[in-house]
């Protein structure tokens, strides 16, 4: 694997390093080793591009960086304008929260401001889990997979990876 910052090609060092890595130049087994070293569940990853995205999301999470949307902009979650930090007053009726990204919390309005929209899971089409970008969906998959009816149907037909 190529470490962009240091040019180190040692696979063991790259698997343990948090410096900027060029995941696109890594072999599939190296991508898997990187994720295994961080104890990341990758049982349901079907495509090489998903491995690369999961590696990048894992690296960013370890560094405290927010996920990046496909546009390259940081996916930093809801803006301060949508979160007041004030507890709801007792007796006040609970209001239904607007749909938000299941991973980062970005609302539909915030996604639109960035030229995007919240999307739903393409397997189960449940409107309970929405995502502002592919990176957030991939990062949230280990959690959503447990409740994903579409994944369960594929698994029963033998078309999903265990």
UniProtKB/TrEMBL annotation:
Top-level taxon of the source organism? Eukaryota
Decide whether keyword Zinc is in the record.
yes
One GO MF term on file is: zinc ion binding
Extract the Pfam families matched here. Answer: zf-MYND
Q: Which InterPro entries match?
A: Znf_MYND
**SUPFAM superfamilies found in the cross-reference section:** HIT/MYND zinc finger-like
Every copy of the MYND-type domain together lies at 101-148
Region Disordered: what ranges?
Answer: 1-20, 61-99
Keyword annotations of the record: Metal-binding, Zinc, Zinc-finger
This one is known as MYND-type domain-containing protein
Q: Which organism is it from?
A: Prasinoderma singulare
């Amino acid at each position: 694997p190529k470490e962009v910052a240091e040019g180190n090609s040692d696979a063991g060092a790259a698997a343990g390093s948090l410096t900027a890595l060029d995941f696109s130049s890594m072999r599939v087994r190296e991508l898997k080793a990187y994720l295994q070293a961080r104890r990341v569940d990758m049982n349901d990853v079907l495509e090489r591009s998903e491995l690369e995205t999961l590696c990048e999301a894992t690296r960013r999470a370890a560094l405290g960086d927010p996920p990046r949307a496909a546009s390259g902009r940081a996916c930093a979650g809801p803006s301060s304008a949508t979160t007041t930090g004030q507890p709801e007053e007792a007796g006040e009726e609970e209001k239904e929260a607007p749909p938000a990204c299941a991973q980062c919390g970005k609302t539909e309005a915030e996604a639109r401001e960035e030229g995007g929209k919240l999307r739903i899971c393409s397997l189960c089409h449940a409107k309970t889990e929405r995502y502002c970008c592919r990176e957030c969906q991939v990062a949230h998959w280990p959690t959503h997979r447990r409740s994903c009816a579409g994944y369960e149907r594929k698994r029963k037909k033998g078309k999903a990876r265990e």
